[in-house]
């Protein structure tokens, strides 16, 4: 039977899930350094307990460890995300007003995202940036798919209200 | 509109009608813009290869349990192995037999644990167990030795020809190829040969040449001749005399036109080769030449 203790299996689990663990912690706390540390801690724990954790359980194991790591320990910081440059060559002739509007919109979006409750922001970004399906996020967070849908709905609602200044 | 329709819209799970209804709503444009904008968001860079390498370097190969526990465990393992080895070798060494060997032209004395003495003639070897000496006084002998045995329990000398058992006595055992002689100088010696026991009182000898027991005269003196640096023979075939000569002087003896089964009576000095050669050649009416470590004996004037 395959075992996480085997180097190639462990490496595979790491490569498949480490980025999501990193993002997950980053969306929660907005701290890149802590997110890197969380990846290390979570996978060291997985390695130390490799005999007890099956490869199928390894994924939720590392999320749980990472999640519990900073629970109530660190204060959430502002989550700073990059906005992929939407202004390509074909749009260099956009008016300065438009560019200004774009910039303002991004700032508003950033603020709106940071204003979201932590669980809504994490769920929303895992879906929007990492393309995680609601079911996957539900598994990671240990809640129902419906709860994730609720978070997504509320997140979208809050974001629009925040941006539109309602 | 169904519950959480915004989530359903994002995941593309709205029905045709619901989607149409949503699109007609006044807030749709805002949501569409939000959807577009958030699809362009990216998280900070994360290099999983690098992170894995860091994990292996900092944590797995040097994981706390590895650094703190393992070297000590390893040390313990090594220490235990060494202790075991030392103990085992101590017991092994203590059961190992003592061995004393002499080469050609060499003599040696061995003092046994009970103060019995062994004098080893040239090219001889005795082996005994120091540890079990008190319970079993046994000597394995190859070659020739003179024994002065302290009073005590049974003392045996084992040879490939036979066994000599004694009780407080002085005797000489010569155990060479095809030649076995036991001479008792004091006390009583019992010689076992082919399951036959022969009692040797002081002043008698037991001689065996090529498996034949030969009557031999009484030994002269109270010590074997070799103890006084002489090799003495009485009616002994020449080949054994030459063999003894080789042993005493570490030389090679060759013969030409000589019947080495002829019996020889006489003795030679063990310290002066020239005298020894004359002591043999004169009574046996032979001649000899020396070439380094080689001596050639030949009959009469047959050399040239």
TrEMBL record, chain A:
<keyword id="KW-0805">Transcription regulation</keyword>
<comment type="similarity">
    <text>Belongs to the sigma-70 factor family. ECF subfamily.</text>
</comment>
<protein>
    <submittedName>
        <fullName>Sigma-70 family RNA polymerase sigma factor</fullName>
    </submittedName>
</protein>
<feature type="domain" description="RNA polymerase sigma-70 region 2">
    <location>
        <begin position="14"/>
        <end position="77"/>
    </location>
</feature>
<dbReference type="InterPro" id="IPR013324">
    <property type="entry name" value="RNA_pol_sigma_r3/r4-like"/>
</dbReference>
<dbReference type="Pfam" id="PF08281">
    <property type="entry name" value="Sigma70_r4_2"/>
</dbReference>
<dbReference type="InterPro" id="IPR036388">
    <property type="entry name" value="WH-like_DNA-bd_sf"/>
</dbReference>
<keyword id="KW-0731">Sigma factor</keyword>
<dbReference type="Pfam" id="PF04542">
    <property type="entry name" value="Sigma70_r2"/>
</dbReference>
<keyword id="KW-0804">Transcription</keyword>
<dbReference type="InterPro" id="IPR013325">
    <property type="entry name" value="RNA_pol_sigma_r2"/>
</dbReference>
<feature type="domain" description="RNA polymerase sigma factor 70 region 4 type 2">
    <location>
        <begin position="107"/>
        <end position="159"/>
    </location>
</feature>
<dbReference type="InterPro" id="IPR039425">
    <property type="entry name" value="RNA_pol_sigma-70-like"/>
</dbReference>
<dbReference type="InterPro" id="IPR007627">
    <property type="entry name" value="RNA_pol_sigma70_r2"/>
</dbReference>
<dbReference type="InterPro" id="IPR014284">
    <property type="entry name" value="RNA_pol_sigma-70_dom"/>
</dbReference>
<dbReference type="InterPro" id="IPR013249">
    <property type="entry name" value="RNA_pol_sigma70_r4_t2"/>
</dbReference>
From TrEMBL, chain B:
<feature type="transmembrane region" description="Helical">
    <location>
        <begin position="75"/>
        <end position="93"/>
    </location>
</feature>
<feature type="domain" description="Protein FecR C-terminal">
    <location>
        <begin position="232"/>
        <end position="296"/>
    </location>
</feature>
<dbReference type="Pfam" id="PF16344">
    <property type="entry name" value="FecR_C"/>
</dbReference>
<keyword id="KW-1133">Transmembrane helix</keyword>
<dbReference type="Pfam" id="PF04773">
    <property type="entry name" value="FecR"/>
</dbReference>
<protein>
    <submittedName>
        <fullName>FecR family protein</fullName>
    </submittedName>
</protein>
<dbReference type="InterPro" id="IPR006860">
    <property type="entry name" value="FecR"/>
</dbReference>
<keyword id="KW-0472">Membrane</keyword>
<dbReference type="InterPro" id="IPR012373">
    <property type="entry name" value="Ferrdict_sens_TM"/>
</dbReference>
<dbReference type="InterPro" id="IPR032508">
    <property type="entry name" value="FecR_C"/>
</dbReference>
<keyword id="KW-0812">Transmembrane</keyword>
<feature type="domain" description="FecR protein">
    <location>
        <begin position="99"/>
        <end position="189"/>
    </location>
</feature>
